[in-house]
Amino acid sequence: MLADPAGCCCAAAPALLSKKNQSLEVTEKFLDSIQGDYRFDVTVSSALSEMPEIGRNIAFYTLPILVPMDQYYEIIQNFGEDRAVYNYRTYMNLLVEDGLDAEVQAQAEQICGTYLGTSDFYTSSKTQRALDRERLTDATMLIVYSLTALFGIIGISSAAVAILNSLYQRRKEFAMLRSVGLDRKGLDRLLHIEGIFLGGKPLVIGLPILFLNATVLMWMQDVTFMEFIQVFPLLGLAAYIVLVLMVISGIYRAASRRIRRDIIVEVLKDENV
């Protein structure tokens, strides 16, 4: 198990910490949202060109400054109240052999809990972070799929109502076609072709827009096509397309049976159609 010495971080270029015994002024206020403005000097006793491999990644241009714990607590006592409380908390990143980090993390939490309050320390491990990411991903995808299903149901139901209304208003047209010799197979073929065009039109328009948006996102996020296609829900998209086509096909089949049951003379005489 590896517990890092406490560190104060500042936004500084690597060249500022390249010389031994160099003095550097560090300020508490590294963001505009921070209320305090405490400043203190740090003398560099040793500098490294890169972060040691301790299982922790430092993002962007943030440089860690490692100091003894007693000096660290002495420094943060001068911070603003909120920042002092935040920085007083001990963070431990555990670096152990593969498969043992969860067990070591539990032991570390038990030891720290004996001397510190639960809000005064925080432990992290590779297994715990992976589990947290998985839970976050599952929760996010549940929301995404729920919204997708909701919009899909609304879209399919709206399309079904529009199709049924359109076919009902055209009953007289179908009656006239039947009166001049349109048989059952011809009516089914006519409605089947209309259903294909109706179901294929949004696919022809929507799929290019979808792939265009995906291409823009891959370019913005610097993601390759192979990385994208591995997580893209192709099966879900295909299932949704098949479902839409099946629903539209079912609506037209039901409408075909309803039209065939109509009495031609009565439909042609009905002024409301």
Q: Brief overview, please?
A:
The chain has 273 residues and is mostly helical. The protein contains nine helices and six strands, in the order E-E-E-E-H-H-E-H-E-H-H-H-H-H-H. The strands form three sheets. Strands 1-4 form a two-stranded antiparallel ribbon.
Tags for this entry?
273 residues; mainly alpha; two-stranded antiparallel ribbon; rod-shaped; disordered N terminus
Question: Quick check: average pLDDT?
Answer: 76
For the secondary structure, the number of strands is: 6
Strands side by side in the biggest sheet:
1-4
Beginning-to-end CA distance, first to last residue: 81 Å
Q: Low-confidence segments, ≥5 residues, pLDDT <50?
A: 1-15
Strand content: 5-15%
Content-based structural category: mainly alpha
What proportion of the residues is helical, as a percent range?
A: 55-70%
Instruction: Report the radius of gyration as a whole number of Å.
Output: 34 Å
**Discrete helix count:** 9
Order of helices and strands: EEEEHHEHEHHHHHH
* Largest sheet entry: 2 strands, antiparallel
Tell me, briefly, the overall form: rod-shaped
